[in-house]
Amino acid sequence: MHNANLRGKVLICVTILAIQCHVVLCSKILVVLPSPGYSQHILMEPLIMALSMRGHNVTVISGFAVKDPSNVRNIVVDFDKVDITPNDLFELRNLDLFTNIRILHHLGLSVTEQLLANRQVQKLIHSGEKFDLVAVETFFNEAHHAFAKHFDAHQVLLHSIGIIEWNSHMVANPNLPSYLPTSFSGYTTKMTFKERFRNTIALWFDRFYKFYVNYPAHQRLVDQYFPAKYDLEELVYNSSLMLSCSHLSSTEPQPLTSAIIEVGGMHIVNKKLPEDLKELLDSAKEGVILFSLGSNAKSSMLSKELIGTIITSIGKLDQKVLWTFDDDKIKDAPANLRISKWFPQTDILAHPNTVLFVSHCGMGSTTEAIHFGVPVICMPIFGDQFMNSKRLALFGMGLELPWESITGDAFGESVRHALSDYRFKENAKKRSEIFRDRPMGPLDLAVYWVDYVLRHNGARHLRNSIYELKWYQLYSVDVILVLVLVFVGCIYGLSATVNLVVAKGKKRKVE
Q: Rounded to an integer, what distance in angstroms lies between the CA atom of residue 458 and that of residue 155?
C-alpha cells in the first residue's frame, strides 16, 4: 500500500514536471527589435538563438534577419524613412542636452510607426496567431508594448544600454537624478552640484516631454495600428521583468528592483578568426590596435582633413591598425594600416596581441572591451556614448579623446600615452576580472529568466508596489509639502503669539 502511494506521488510529480517542460520548451515567443542600428540587433541575436535551441518557436521583427533561421521566423522591416542619417549623428554632439532629448524621442516615434506600418507586421497582427511571451526592446517605442496585450502574452523588456531614464519607470525602478545620470548628460554617478542640478532639470524635461508630448503620439499609433483599443499607460506598466545589457562593472552599481536582471555580455561568443586576420595578429610583435566607430556612424562621414590627420598619425605608430571603414579605397594608406568595411570585433579583441581599442564607446563595444580587458581610446559621438566614455575613464582603463581636439599628432600622442602607461592595461584587466566573475554566464541567465516568466505564468510576484504610487508619492513630495506647511504654520503661530504678547505689554504700559 505504501509503495503504491509512493509510485502514485512519483507519477504525479513526473507528470507535472513533464507538463512544465512542455510549456517552457514549446512556447511561442515574439521578439520585437525596433532599433534601426545593427549593433543593437547583434546584442540580442544570441538570446534569440539560445531560446530557439531550447525548443521555443521564435518570431523576430527586426531591421535585420537572424543569421541562422532554424526554428526562427524572420520579419524584416526596412527602416528607410528614419529621419536621422549617419552624418547627422556627428552633428548631434554639438547640440544642447534638451534638443538631443527631443530629437531622440522623435526618432523613436518614427521608428515605432515604420515597424507597425510594415505589411508583414500588420499581417501578423491580424492573423489571429497566439504567443506565450513577447520580448520588446525599449527604444522610445512605447506603442510596441501593445503587442503583448494584443496577443494576450507575458511581456519581457530588453534593453541594450542599461537602466536609465528611458525605461526605469517601466519596471518601477526609482530614478534618482542626484545619483543616476541621464543618458545624454555624459556624467557618471559621481556628480558635482552643478552636474546634479543640470541632470535633475534634464530628467524633469525628459519626463515632461515623454508623458505630455510623446505618449499621446504613441497612443494614436496604438489606436491606428491595432484592432482593439488599449490604454497606453496600462501597456507601459505591463512587463514581467527587464533584461538589461549591463553589469555593475560596466555601468556602475545602482539600486535595482527584483524585476531587473543584468545580462551584460550575453552577446559575446568567441569564434575562430579568418586565417588572414589570425596570421596578421599572431605576427604583430608590437601589437594590434582596433579602430571602430560602430555600425551606426560611418567613418567616411568624417571630413577629409580629419581622416588625413588620423591616417598620418597612424603611419607614425609601431603597431598595426585595423580600421573598420565603410570606404575601403583610401589612397596612400600607410603599411601598418588595414582598412575593411567589417572586422570580427569580438574575436579581434579576444586575441592576446590586441593592445588597444579606439572606439565610439557604444554599450556593446564598451562591454566587449571590459570583458577582454583591453584599454580604450574613447571617441564618443552621440547618445549614451559620452556616459560610457566617462565611465571607462573613471575605471582607469579609458582615455578620452574628443573629436574637436584631433589636430596635429594628437591621435598618435593619445595612443602612445595609453600604451606606455601600464595603469590603463592593469585597470582593464582588473575590470575584466570583475566582469567575468559571476555564478552563471549572462546568456544562460537571460534564458533562465525568460523560462522563469513562462513557468510562473508571468511572474507577477516580481512586481513591486511602486506601480501604485504617483510620482509625487514615490519621491515623498507630498510628505515634504506637508512638513513645509506644518513648519510655516508653526512659525506663523509663534510669530502671531509673540506679536500678541508684545501688543499686550505695550497696552499695559499705556494704561
A: 8
